[in-house]
Automatic annotation (TrEMBL):
Keywords: Signal. Residues 1-25 form the signal peptide. InterPro entries: Bact_solute-bd_prot1, SBP, TAT_signal. It comes from Acrocarpospora pleiomorpha. It comes from the Bacteria. Coiled coil: none annotated. The keyword DNA damage does not apply. This is Sugar ABC transporter substrate-binding protein. Transmembrane segments: none annotated.
Amino acid sequence: MEPRTTSRRTFLSLAMGVPVGAALAACGSSGPTPTGGGASGGGAAAGKATYWYLSTQPQEGIRTGSVDRFNKANPNAQIAATTFQNDAYKTKIKTALGAGQAPTIIWGWGGGTLRTYVQAGQVDDLTPWFDQNPAIKDRLFPSSFGAATIDGKIYAMPAEAVQPIVLFYNKKVFDQVGVQPPESWGDIMELVPKFNAAGIAPFSLGGQSRWTNMMWLEFLFDRVGGPELFGAVFDAQKDAWSNPAALDALTKVQDLVKADGFIKGFSSITADSNADQALLYTGKAAMMLHGTWTYGSMALDGGDFVSGGHLGYMNFPPVEGGKGDPSNTVGNPGQYLSIYSKATPEQKETAKKFFATQVLSPDEVKQWIDTGSVPIAMGSESALASSKDAEWLQFVYGVASNAKTFGQSWDQALSPTAAETLLDNISQLFQLSITPEEFAANMNAVIGK
């Protein structure tokens, strides 16, 4: 099946007619560990490629393992890796590209950011390579190519795992308070005072990281107004943020803040430290809206929280009277690897060989599954079913494959300029320092930029 290439909508919403891969911004948690980098591969030998990626565990270990296997098998075509935390990476890659000092392999989320790379001539068109290597293309979820495709051409190798945003909850805490998981937005608002009365924060939130707040608006926009609501923003329609449904969603999130729905001091908590996850698995918070990549971290760090069956999860519930399909989800449609246009021919060949032999190789696919992720590799259903995390993996696969619409994370769907303004204003919205109307006005000013 050919990837969708004809509409800008592709980068925002991927139809789920076939098994699909998707997913936040997978987000870093560990400190930067530079081991290479620089212009055309960091000043390395002509054939030595460089590769920057996020330092999240357990994801970092999988990425590093693939690089190590490649280097062992290719002594004359090596890759030097450098890891960064999420926010540090975004700043570093932007600066490096501007200075002509980017790594050979550029890790990213596709969508709006990739579009800016393409417009600046900073990444190679990989369409001819995929056309010459159909087997590589055919082993990936077809819809994963949506956010890799700009104006009908493929500029990135889809990689890694499907990662929708889901609503996690602590079953022990729910049993302690004697309540059931929410089935609607109304239920969420009714649960808030019950958990607060028990001395438990209703929701954990690493609000200092900003993009964690964004996930709430992504779902509320969808559930209230349907995917067309943010679609109007993405399509640069004038004053799209002032749509009544948008203002309703913005008001609802402030209602939740005002009701003390989030952990006290959430604006000082970081997601990069996994502190938000710890609040959930230690029972200090009852629920957490987050990406599926956090499952592996909670399994690793949360004692028996995951292995003991105390972790619950569900798709975000509907909003009463809303237009969004309850099956819809949001997240990132895979992760994406591009090749820096200024890399040497030797480095580019090394990168392509890495894409062909190690990205979602059988070894890597097994590692993703072993850490509770659903890789965007065709034919992995039997491996998912036989995994120790089969129930979780099949849930994630079901959310992604059954969603009528899979919306890409806003900070990746928009240009970096608009995304930065968005994150700043979302932070202010959650801090109650601006009104929904002020938020809309500020965001309308950067539509299409």
